[in-house]
Amino acid sequence: QVQLVESGGGLVQPGDSLRLSCAASGFTFDHYNIFWFRQAPGKEREGVSCISSSGVGRYYQDSVKGRFTISRDNAKNTVYLQMNSLKSEDPAVYYCAGQFGSSCRGGDAMDNWGKGTLVTVSS
Fold this sequence. Notes:
Elements: E1 3-7, E2 10-12, E3 18-25, E4 32-39, E5 46-51, E6 58-60, E7 68-73, E8 78-83, E9 92-100, E10 112-113, E11 117-121
Parallel strand pairs: 2-11
Antiparallel strand pairs: 1-3, 3-8, 4-5, 4-9, 5-6, 7-8, 9-10, 9-11
């Protein structure tokens, strides 16, 4: 059974940090690029970051560059999103998604999705 399970969300204050995890099972993890998306209430889902299957290619939305870092541990079938200096525009449900291939293709469909983890930023 293919599964992606996000964890690590929570309530933090502006300027704080969180590390999200995306644990995968049921598929050949190191053959998949992994994306992080987020969706805030009343807004469309947007791509945040992507890491290629090998971990070499890493891409970020402009609004998170320099604050978020994506990484993966293929031995643990897990991708991480380290989020530093969280801002008031970052709260959302964060989803991870898998895409078969060796390089991130933001315009193409995802093959599997997690159910999301909620990030709340409030003072």
